[in-house]
Amino acid sequence: MAKQTKYIIVSGGVISGIGKGIIASSTGLLLKTLGLTVTSIKIDPYLNIDAGTLSPLDHGEVFVLDDGGEVDLDLGNYERYLNVTLTRDNNITTGKIYREVIDKERRGDYLGKTVQVVPHITNAIQDWVERVGAMPTSDTGRTPDVCIVELGGTVGDIESAPFIEAMRQFQFRVGHDNFCLIHVSLVPVVGAVGEQKTKPTQASVRDLRGLGLSPDILACRSALPFEEGIREKLSMFCQVSPKQVFSVHDCESLYHVPILLREQGMIDVLTDRLKLDALSISKEIVLEGDTLWAQWREFARRRARDLDATTIAIVGKYTYLADSYISVVKGLEHAALNVKRKINIKWVEASDLEEATMHKDPLKYHEAWQHLCAADGILVPGGFGERGVEGKVLAAKWAREHNVPYLGICLGMQVAVIEFARNICGMTDAQSAEFREGCALPAIVFMPEIDRTTMGGTMRLGSRPTKFQASDVARRSAIYKLYGSANEVHERYRHRYEVNPEIVSELEAKGMQFVGRDAETGERMEILELDNHPYFVGVQYHPEYLTRPLNPSPPFLGLLLAASGQLDAYLKGEELADDAETKLKM
C-alpha cells in the first residue's frame, strides 16, 4: 500500500498579500526540522497558463524552475525555505486546469457527458494536487510525508471558488487525519489607542465555514503581538481551541517567523492534528532536522545582530515594487549574513541615471547618481524592454572605471558587454538587437532557435550546464574559485538574446574574459570576468533562483565579499565565521 501524503492547506482572508506564502514556507520548514519530507503546491486562480507573461510591476517577480516553468514568486520562497527542487506542476493556475479539462473533452474522455465546474473542474484540481503531492522533490527520492498547498487569492473571490470547493471535497478524499487547514487572517490595529479588532477575522472564518471548510489553525497577522484576551476571543467566535490561534505579528525579519510559530506551539498542534507521531522516521533523518533547526536559528540570530553594513545599489527598471526583484534581494541577504554583514540596499531606477532625467528632473538625477557613487557594490539585474538600458550601461561604466564590485545578471551582463565594446574596443555604435533591430554593430543578438512570434514559454528557460574554460585565465578567475573550482555548474536561464560570438575574441583581447560557456556547444557566453578589477562579473543565467539561506549563490557571495573587502581572504581559505557557535554551510 502506497504511503498516504498528509496535506496542509493555507488559505487567506480579509485582504490579499497577507503573507500566506511565508506562513506556508515557515510551516514546511518546521516540519522539515522534525525530519519529515515536505513538498509544496501554489494555486493561483488567474486564467494565465503561467506567470511568464505577467508584468513584474503587476504581480512581482517571475520565478523560474529547473524544468523551465515560469511560476509565481511564492515557489521561490518554498524552494529557499524547504531546500527542494519543484516543477512547473507545483504551480496550479485556473488556465492550466481549464486547458486540461477542455483537452479531455475534445478527445472525448468524458464520453458525451455535460462538462461542468462540479465535478469535472473540481476533480481535475484534486487529481492534480494528489499527483503532485506524491512526487519526490529532493535528491533522496523520498515520497513527501507532507504537502503544503497555498490557495492563492482571498476567501470569497469569485475566481477562487472552484478551488475552495475542490478542497472541501478533498478533505473527505484523503481523510480527517491527513487534512489540516491553516487560515491566515488579519487582526488590524485601529484607533488612537491602537486597539486590535477581531471582527474581520470572524467574518472571514464565517465565509470560509459557509463554503464548507473549517480552519484547524488560525494564523493572525498583526502589527503587534496579541493583546490580553484576543486569542480567547478569536477562539470563542471562530470555533478553534486557543492553542490553535497563532499571533503572527511583525518581527525583526521573515526568517524569524518559523521561530515565532514554533515558540507558540505550532509543531505540537500539527503533530496532534495530523498524527505525525505515527510516521516512521529514521534517527539519521531526525538528526538532519535538528541540525537544520540549529543552523536556521543561527542564521536568524545573525539577521538580528548589529553587523557592519555593506551597501549595494540595485540598478533596475522595476524598482518601484521590491517584489519584482525578491530573489535578487534574498540572494544579497543570504550572501551578506553568511559573511557576517548586514545588507543595505539602495534602489536606483536605471532611467534616472540618464541625461534626459538631468534636464527633466535634476533632483531625481543627482539623487540616483549619489546612491550609485556611494555604494560599496553595484548589481544590475535582468529585465526586458529598452527603458532604462542606457542608465544600466552607465552603471556598468562607473563600476568598471572606479573599481567598484559589479555583478550583472542576464541583461546586466549584456549591458556590461555593450559598455565595454563601446568604450574599450572602439565599437562606439555597439547596441543590442533587442533594442535596435538591424543595428550596424550588434553586441547582443537574438538566439536563432527562439520563436519570434509567440511570447509565452518560448525563451531559453530552465536549468542548463555551463562549463568553465580550460584556460589559465578561467582557472585563475574569482568566479571559478567561488564555485569551488567546479568544471561545470548548473544554473537557471530566462532569456532570448545572447552575446554576439563574432566579437568575443576582440573583447577578450582587451581584457573581458568569457570564462564560462555553454556545455553543449561552447559557442554561448555564459560567464564573464574583467581582468584587473576587484570583482566585475557578468552571468547570462539567473543565480538568484538557486540561492538558499544556508547556501548562498556564488556570484552573490563574491559580490558581498568584494564589497566588504573580504574576497581575497576568502579565496585564500581564511575563516570568516570564527565567532559563530553554529557555522553556516558555505
Task: Walk me through the structure.
The protein is an alpha/beta fold and 586 residues long. It is 37% helix and 20% strand. It has 21 helices and 23 strands. A nine-stranded mixed sheet has the order 13-12-14-15-23-22-21-18-19, with helices on both faces. Strands 5-2-6-1-7-10-11 form a seven-stranded parallel sheet, sandwiched between helices. Helix 15 (389-401) links the parallel strand 14 and strand 15. The longest helix is centred in the middle third of the chain and has 22 residues, at 283-304. The protein is globular, with a radius of gyration of 25 Å. Mean pLDDT is 90; it is low at 577-583.
Q: What descriptors fit this protein?
A:
586 residues, 21 helices, alpha/beta, globular
